[in-house]
Specification:
elongated; 4 strands; 5 helices
Length: about 200
């Protein structure tokens, strides 16, 4: 941390805060194999500055996602290195708190096959989908028992239920409940159509 300065003395400290959240972008593009999946999102920036005082403390929060624990470790190492070296280059210091609250949700092939059969049994057979980096506690569960994380589908954009889950105006599409119930009944009872 550096002593506070008025906005008229910017030459006395590192002040280009606009670039701070962009710094981690190079980690994925330059450190992670292009064939692998990784995401780093800087989601908020907090400072102790004011309109006429340059901040002395900056806190950047965010999230990282990957399907591979080795990539998660690599991202953490690179974030630490980048933050510490950038701060040092500007006569400041950085502290990184990196936590892992969730494991990647990776579907078991046998559980996925059962989920696809149950979906087909209730007339929902769109089983093709790209991997999704959902931040779910389900990943911890799936790390202990064979599991499948299935999206039932809440609606399409512009239609009821078509607003993403974490939006402030999200509204669950209640018309989906009967199909969801039939899906879980088929899955639990094992009365699924064999392919």
């Amino acid at each position: 941390m550096l002593p506070a300065h008025r906005s008229g003395t910017p030459h006395r400290l590192f002040r280009d805060l606009r670039r701070a959240p962009a710094l981690p972008r190079s980690i994925v593009s330059r450190s992670v194999d292009p064939a692998a999946s990784a995401v780093i999102s800087c989601t908020d920036l907090f400072t102790d500055g004011a309109r006429n005082a340059i901040p002395t403390t900056v806190r950047i929060t965010g999230d990282t996602r990957s399907f591979d624990p080795a990539i998660s470790r690599l991202i953490e190492e690179r974030i630490r290195s980048l933050a510490e070296q950038t701060a040092r280059a500007h006569h400041a210091r950085a502290e990184v708190l990196y936590t892992r609250e969730f494991l990647p949700s990776v579907n078991d092939p046998t559980a996925t096959d059962a989920a696809i059969r149950a979906a087909a049994h209730v007339g929902q057979s769109d089983a093709e989908g790209a991997p999704v980096m959902a931040s779910e506690d389900f990943g911890v569960y799936a790390d202990h028992v064979p599991a499948n994380f299935t999206f039932i589908g809440n609606g399409l954009a512009g239609h009821p239920g078509g607003i993403p889950l974490h939006s402030h105006d999200y509204d669950f599409n209640d018309a989906l409940l009967p199909a969801g119930i039939r899906y879980y009944q088929a899955l639990a009872s094992g009365t699924t159509v064999r392919r």
